[in-house]
Structure formats: structure tokens, C-alpha cells
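Example 4.3 (complexes with small molecules)
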Amino acid sequence: MACHRQGIELSALTLAVRVGSRQVAAVSDVSLHLAPGRVLGLVGESGCGKSLTAQAVLRLGEHQGVTRISGDITLDGQSLFALEEKALRRLRGGQVAMIFQEPMTALNPVFSIGSQLTEVMRLHLDMDQQTALNKAEALLAEVGIQQPARVLRQYPDALSGGMRQRVLIAMAISTGARYIIADEPTTALDVSVQKRIIELLRRLQQQRQLGVLLVTHDFGLVAEMCDDVAVMYAGEIIETGSVEALFDQPRHPYTRALMQCRPEIAAAGSVLPVIEGNVPSPGTWPVGCRFAPRCPLAAESCQQTVPLNAWQQGSHQARCVREPEA
Ligand SMILES: Nc1ncnc2c1ncn2[C@@H]1O[C@H](COP(=O)(O)OP(=O)(O)O)[C@@H](O)[C@H]1O
Ligand SMILES: [Mg+2]
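Answer. The structure with magnesium ion bound is encoded below.
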């Protein structure tokens, strides 16, 4: 196994959550590689385990009863599970920053924007308060915030959702982090604001050569932002490959179904198609292919085990044994 690859590598990661008194797998056997300077999209419907996977990279979730059953996550070859508390704090925000769907998750309503930004910088960079304040002002300007000196003195409540997300992005880049985990960073925003936040993320990613793990349920966003994609269903990765390969030749029926749900593809004025049925929750996954109960191509053999790389063409892999229709 290639254990010393640069970047963030998840290898056969299995995570469990608590359901009542039981521990059940919610992420199973997930392997992903986020290389430096690349953008990896993690796509799937709600409830597929995307956030659990993303949060695991910073070892978040452990306080909400999420446990690692097996597998590993490494940063430049070093296991994150071997880190002590202090090193873990340095990693969080220092090397790997996280942007959430709801920016208030990460902002504290009782502290000003300036004090929160400078605290992050002073924690990770050896910096006095005045230097940090100056840098904070420059960062707010860099993420497109007008009147940055004024915003530094404001509290999160005074800002719009889009502005708060810009502040979080400023915070993420303030420490020189090389990787950003962005979990549905624009889902809660108006469409016009979404577009501008994505433009900002893309510009910063390119200028700073950031490695970005972009969690989304939106294939349009994947096409715009990502180099590589991993499609997740019921806790497992069912297809991976470059964006070009996946869009040219989506192989798994689930990937195809998700792509049909893109608003740009649905005819104007028509109802957005949805995939019939629901994502099975942890503890209720079918044996064999987990998508089989919803799959138009499912055959009897799909109820048995489906091998990890049932289909493979270079780095493009899909966990499906069926031939898709042309
Ligand atoms: N802390 C937790 N305890 C119990 N169940 C959880 C926890 N976090 C997530 N889950 C469940 O695990 C599944 C995957 O959740 P999540 O990773 O948030 O999905 P996604 O981000 O793809 O929408 C869901 O069924 C969710 O209800
Ligand atoms: Mg989520």
C-alpha cells in the first residue's frame, strides 16, 4: 500500500455512529486521496456519510459518538490518529482548515470578527496583536469584504450569510493552511451569493495552490471546481475518477441518476427529477450493492457482494457489475 503519498489520504476508513444503544457503521471502507493543490469533490445525496467523512479528516465528530472502526487517515504519510492533542490542535486550522455549510457553526456570536480572526492567527502563527489585526484587515479585503476595518469591529450577527462565509474563508487562509475541507459551503446561501463565494474559493485555491475537499450534492459545482470526484452512497464510495472521466462516461447508475438531477439539465420550468426512494440509514444497508433497491439496472447478482473495483479504466473506478445503457 502507498502509505507515504503527499497530501491527505484516507485508506479503508470505516466509522461507526451510535444508534440507540448500538454502534453501527456509517462510513465503510472509504479510500480517498486529496493531493496538494488539487480539488476533490465528494458528492452524494443527503445522509450518505459525506460530512462524517469530511469531519474525520480533522478528527471532529469523536465527541458526538463517532468512532473509527478501522482504516487510517494520513497527512503526508503521517497518521492523524497517532497525533497527540497538541499536534491535533496545530493541525486543525493550521494545516487543514474547515469551512462549514452554516458559518455560525464556526463563529462565536459574542466575539467580534477581528478578535476571532486574530485569535486564530495568534494561535497558529507567532504574531503580536497589532500585526495580526493588520493582517486580518488585509485578509478581509482579499476575500472581497468592503470596509474591512469596520467589519473587524462587528459581530457575526451583523453580517449576512455570504459575508460570514467570506470571513470563514479569510480565517481558513489566515494561517497559511495548505488544505481546506469545505462541507457544502454554499448550500445555505442565495444563488447569486453562491456564485460569488465559489468564484472566491476557486481564485484562492488557484493562487495559493490549496488542496480542497469539496463536499457537495451539486454536480454543477463539481464540474466548475473539481479536478477529481468521488461519489458516495450509503457510506461507501461507489465511483471515483477525474471530473472529465466521470462526466464523459458516468459508469455507476447512481452517478448517472445524480447527474440527471442537475438543475441545468432539467428543462426550464420542469420539475427537478429526483431519484425515487431513500438513502438507507446506517444499520439498514442492504447486503450486496446498497443501491440495488433503487437501481433501474439491478439484477439478482447485485444482491450478492459487489467488488470494490468491479469496473476500472485507469483511475476511473466504479463499484457496479452492470453494463449501463449507452
Ligand atoms: N453523530 C452521529 N450520531 C449518529 N448518527 C449520525 C451522526 N452523524 C451522522 N449520523 C448519521 O449518519 C448518516 C450520514 O450522515 P452525514 O455524514 O451527515 O451525511 P451527509 O453529510 O452525506 O448528508 C446519516 O444517516 C446521519 O443521520
Ligand atoms: Mg452533510
